[in-house]
Amino acid sequence: MQIYLPIAEVVVNAFTLIGLGGIVGLMSGLFGVGGGFLITPLLFFIGIPPAIAVATGANQVVASSFSALLAHVKRKSVDFRMGWMLLAGGLAGSSLGVMLFNMLQKLGQVDLVVQLCYVVFLGLIGAMMLQESLRSLRRAKQSGPIRPMRRHQHGWVHRWPLKMKFRASGLYISAIPVLLVGACVGVLGALMGVGGGFIMVPAMIYLLGMPTKVVIGTSLFQITFLSAYTTLMHAVYSNTVDVMLALLLIIGGVTGAQIGTGLGAKLRAEQLRILLALLVLVVCGKLALDLFLRPSELYSLTPGILK
C-alpha cells in the first residue's frame, strides 16, 4: 500500500515502514537501546531525506522505548534516581544538539554531517561489539560460564565531588560523570535521531559501574523522555517531523518492543550481540558506500535548499 508523506514529500510503502518500526522495537526490547541508530539510516535507504529521518526517527524511539520500559518497571529493574540524573544532563545536551542541527540545516550541510556521524559511530560501535562478543564466546567455551564482573571497584568516578547514593544500583558516586554521560547522549540524540542507548548502556556498565540487572530499564527510562523532548524541539524549530511517517513506525515499534522484551529473557546474550554487531556493520558499510558512489541525480531540489 503506497502512501504519500507530506513533510518528507516522498511516496513509500506503508507495510515497509511498519516492518522497519517492528525491527527497531525488537532491538529496543532485546538490548535496551532506543533503536534510532538503526531506524534513521534504514529510512535513508528507502528515500527519506536525512533531516526528516533524524527528527521523525527520534519520535519512533519514544514509542518503542516506552513500551519496553513498562515491562521493566513491572520487574522493578529501573533505577529512577539514576534515570532522572541522566535525563537532566540529556536535556541540556539535546538543546545544544538541536541548535547545532538547525545551524547545519541553514548552511545546507546537515545531510552530509548526519551521514558522516553515522558512518563513524556505527563503524566504531559495531566493531567493538563484535570483538567483545567473539571474545566472550571463546571464554565461555574454554572455561565455562563467565564470572560476573566486580562493579564496586573504586575508580576515578568515585573520587569526584558531589557524591550521591543510588540505592537501586547500590552505588555511591559523583553526580558529575552521570550528568556528562547524559549530556553526550543528548547531543547525539539531537544530531543523529538516536536514543543513545548504544553508547549509554556500555557507559553505565563500565564507567558508572551499574549492575546489569538495572542497566537496560534505566537506559530506557532516560531514552523515552529524552527522545520525546528532542522530537518536540525538532518539530518546533525546524519543522522536520512527519506525523504520518512517525505513526506507521510507532505501530510497528510498539509491537516489536513487546516481542523483544520476551525474547531477551530466553536467548543467549553473546549470540544476540554478534547478530546486532553484524547488522550495525552492514548498515555502516552501506552508508559509507553511498557517500563515495556517484549519485543518480547530481542536482535536486529540497525544501529551502538548492544542492
TrEMBL record:
One Pfam family linked to the record: TauE
Q: What membrane topology does the UniProt entry give?
A: Multi-pass membrane protein
Keywords, sorted A to Z: Cell membrane, Membrane, Transmembrane, Transmembrane helix
Enumerate the subcellular locations listed in this protein's record, separating them with semicolons: Cell membrane; Membrane
Q: What's the name of the protein?
A: Probable membrane transporter protein
Q: Is-annotated flag, keyword Transmembrane helix?
A: yes
Entry annotated with the keyword Transmembrane: yes
Q: Which InterPro entries match?
A: TM_pro_TauE-like (IPR002781), TSUP/Inactive_protease-like (IPR051598)
Give the GO cellular component terms, alphabetically.
plasma membrane
Q: Which domain of life is it from?
A: Bacteria
Family according to the record? Belongs to the 4-toluene sulfonate uptake permease (TSUP) (TC 2.A.102) family.
* Transmembrane annotation, as ranges: 12-39, 83-104, 110-130, 171-199, 205-229, 241-260, 272-293
Q: What species is this protein from?
A: Paracoccus limosus
